[in-house]
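> agent: user asked for a holo structure of the chain below bound to copper (II) ion. Plan: (1) validate sequence alphabet, (2) canonicalize SMILES, (3) run complex prediction with ligand conditioning, (4) return tokens. Step 1... ok. Step 2... ok. Step 3 dispatched.
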Amino acid sequence: MRDKSGNLPVAAIVGGAALVVALAVVVALFGGRGVTAAAPPLGDPQVQHTLAETPAHTTHDLTINAVWADRPLRADAEDQVPVEELPVFDAVLGYAPHAAPPVDRDYRAHVRVELEVVEKVMELADGVEYRFWTFGGSVPGPMVRVREGDYVTFTLQNHPSSLFPHNIDLHAVSGQGGGAEATLVSPGQQATFSFTALNPGVYVYHCATAPVGMHIANGMYGLIVVEPKEGFPAVDREYYVMQGDFYTKGDFGERGFQEFDMMRAIDEDAAYVVFNGRVGSLTGDNALQAKVGETVRLFVGNGGPNLTSSFHVIGDVFDRVWVEGGAMVNRDIQTTVIPAGGAAVVEFDTNVPASLTLVDHAIFRAFNKGAIGSLVVTGDEDHVVYSGRVDIRPYDPEAKAGH
Ligand SMILES: [Cu+2]
């Protein structure tokens, strides 16, 4: 099935995926009923009758925990307003760890976004320099925040000092390459395209210029938040965090200028796994802050290029997680999976003062590759929620046995 370069034809992949889905459906329909010892044979007319009727008790309403309604796209009156009649705004971008401000609008708009690609040397860790390719001069690139249904005109500029062409694929875009084809620009060029933000959610954007993996590995990713029409619930603090894995010739911590290592990237052998483009971006003086009693919302993305994040905050529980950045909210979560090229929204209500620690719970990445950050919560203690140490003394099992 593989061609000369070892690639599977798309048809084979799609066919294989369809088979997997079909099997999953069969398992879902029949597998779940195997709990009774004497399951009736498949030919049993009673079973067929049951399946044909799909009784209510066998269906699961996955919208129960949804934070916005499952609704047809572009079906509201506001969606019918011609683009020329929409009010025009320039987007206010959010630079990590700060989220872009909430949209705070109950009507559709025409939002203009300008993003400049800059290739620049910055520190990947103390004493470790790396030539990043960036959206907006930072890793991650700035957060773009619009409202469901907005008409967005997006201009990508490639700084004349760049050495490479770049483009942008926004996962929120329905259209060729997510905008990648329309925005491919050489150094000293800019290109513009427009799209309607059809689907609410939290989406990754990234460069998609060949070799795509290299452009992403050099830091070309960020988040675009498409708020649902009803908006996100108000919270006390919002932060913007993106994980990424980096592949340098030298190992973790090896000082000096480090070049990108393509073979290491292909092997997924990350030298660094970091939040917001740098070891220490969220620790020490850079730690995130909150006060006891506040609700904190983290927009967490994963640029990859390779590694899936097991995102966890040591010392608290996610009261709510907007799973995969979509409509479903899960509650009381310890660790949430954020795939490469995916995102999540995690929220927690802070209960006691603590220095919370953000990690990828694939834990060597945290303590040996950089994926660690802090959120310092200050305020009044509540010793019922958490007492702190109330006793320490020598422990001698033999003395206890002889007692
Ligand atoms: Cu690029």
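> agent: step 4 complete. Summary for user: The helical segments are 10-30, 45-53, 180-183, 212-217, 262-266, 364-369, 397-401. Residues 1-55 have pLDDT under 50 and may be disordered.
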